[in-house]
Amino acid sequence: MSALRRKLGDEYQVVSTSASGGGLPPPRAAPRGKRQRFVDKNGRCNVQHGNLGGETSRYLSDLFTTLVDLKWRWNLFIFILTYTVAWLFMASMWWVIAYMRGDLNKAHDDSYTPCVANVYNFPSAFLFFIETEATIGYGYRYITDKCPEGIILFLFQSILGSIVDAFLIGCMFIKMSQPKKRAETLMFSEHAAISMRDGKLTLMFRVGNLRNSHMVSAQIRCKLLKSRQTPEGEFLPLDQLELDVGFSTGADQLFLVSPLTICHVIDAKSPFYDLSQRSMQTEQFEIVVILEGIVETTGMTCQARTSYTEDEVLWGHRFFPVISLEEGFFKVDYSQFHATFEVPTPPYSVKEQEEMLLMSSPLIAPAVSNSKERNNSVECLDGLDEVGTKLPSKLQKITGREDFPKKLLRMSSTTSEKAYSMGDLPMKLQRISSVPGNSEEKLVSKTTKMMSDPMSQSVADLPPKLQKLSGGGRMEGNLPPKLRKMNSDRFT
After folding, report:
1. What's the CATH class of domain 66-178?
2. Where do transmembrane segments lie in this chain (predicted)?
3. Residue 38 φ then ψ, to 5°
4. CB 124 within 8 A of CB 118
5. Residue burial 187-199, b: 16+ Cβ < 10 Å; e: rest
């Protein structure tokens, strides 16, 4: 036996599976008070990467992005540490050159030309490096032409300083200009609501923009995170399903200058097709909302995220209106942005509503009766087959085609079904179908003529003995009473 330990929410459990295989049972529902979110309300994802092993070297291969993704305190620490180490290293190099040339001992000799004038010790060498690197140049310390090694070190210092400045200052600039803080002025409603809109059960939530600057090409997407188990027994702890918020109609492209209510219509294609008010008490899911757009002032892409758990979805609620028309402008009241009120909403799922509507529909009775009539027609055809086999072979030849009764009854049953279905149509359609010369009346008359002419003609051609056997010109005399009554009802 092998034990599989997994965490679902804040609740841990141990699930045992046999060595020969077998599907994992679905997880227990975590307590409501310990609901673990995948995405926080502020958009932060609660995911931590562990046991990377040797994969940590990948972070160093993209060092610039790694530094940008670090928190501000670590960025400032690396910024100060890098400049301090670089300055101390270059100051030490200038001090070593002065020490090897003996400039420290002859610093006050006016007849001696040192490598760097007025460098007596390490602090003076450090000040010379800072003045050179920062291009301050007080004019008191300078390089002389008698020091080629100093000239080479000066070139190396300029190149290294440019690289360090470009890397660190560029990293700080990118981090400061990130549009993450722009997402702070994009609002999402605290709750989502489910109610009827345009005659359809709809999941709704609200988004808003607090700034006057627009979000260019704003687009919204929704993901449903829900654990499920496949028919093969595979357990998917966070299966992602797409929620359609108007992708096919273009409603997901937002003109976000005022608060908008985003709608997801619950239909047969929706993951919430069988979600009802009762089942929502036991369901566990999370709706992740992603709003993307281009910041108008900087041209950078911004993304704002939030999520709604099953506890934050209100059944039978609707959002308060927040836009009012004032004199010359529209006013948005953000005090009512999160407010909802109750509205009459059926507590059943869309699937249950469709089933109840189907059961109460008057079109079911004709369908049932039509099926019974078809069964009677089949029994009639079987009875005629038995009668046809009992006739003499000569009579079977004279009567012609053996499948004639079958075709005849099939045509008559079709016309009767059509006549029955016409009774369920509205009066206007019945009036149209009852116009003289209708195709159905022609079909009935043609069927009656086909029934009477060949049968009477074929029986009249029989010998007198066979005519007596057939019952005076009618084949129905030898049929069973039940079948004879059924045929008489159909042919009249």
Report:
1. mainly alpha
2. 76-97, 151-174
3. -85, -35
4. yes
5. bbbebbbbbebee
Instruction: Tell me the residue type at 134.
Output: A
Distance (Å, whole) CA 203 – CA 287: 11
> In the chain, helix, strand, coil percent, each to 5?
45, 20, 35
* DSSP state for residue 24 in the 8-state scheme: P
**Contacts of residue 225, Cβ cutoff 8 Å, sequence gap at least 6:** 38, 238, 239, 240, 285, 286, 287, 288
* C-alpha to C-alpha distance for 313 and 193, rounded to whole angstroms: 5
- Report pLDDT for 454: 43
Are both 66-178 and 181-354 of the same fold? no
Q: Residue 94: helix, strand or coil by DSSP?
A: helix
Domain spans in the chain, listed from the N-terminal domain onward: 66-178, 181-354
Domain 181-354 has CATH 2.60.40.1400: yes
- Token representation of residue 148: 């080629």
The H or E element containing residue 223 is strand 215-229
Per DSSP bridges, beta strands 340-342 and 317-319 are antiparallel
User: Measuring CA to CA, which residue among 92, 322, 349 is closest to residue 210?
Assistant: 322
Strand partners, 16: 3
Cα Rg, the chain, nearest whole Å? 45
Continuous segment of H or E residues that includes residue 290: strand 286-295
Q: Which residues of the chain have pLDDT under 70?
A: 1-34, 107, 362-492
140, two tokens: 């008191």
How far is 490 from 375, CA to CA, in rounded Å?
A: 14
Which pLDDT belongs to residue 132?
A: 87
Amino acid 91: pLDDT: 92
10 Å CB burial of residue 332 (0-12, 13-18, 19+) is middle
Write down the residue that tokens 């602090």 correspond to: 123
Tell me, what amino acid is at 45? C
C-alpha count within 13 angstroms, C-beta hemisphere, residue 159: 6
pLDDT in tens, 27-71: 444 445 567 899 999 888 988 888 887 777 787 788 888 888 888
Residue type, 424: D
Instruction: Specify the pairing of strand 313-315 against strand 192-197.
Output: parallel
223-232: pLDDT as tens digits: 999 998 999 9
pTM over 0.85: no
Using DSSP's 3-state secondary structure scheme, residue 263 falls into strand
Question: Which of these, 179, 180, 171, lies nearest to 63 by C-alpha position?
Answer: 171
Closest CA to 388 of 452, 488, 458, 491: 458
Structure tokens that stand for 108 in this block: 């006050």
For residue 177 the two structure tokens come to 């200009």
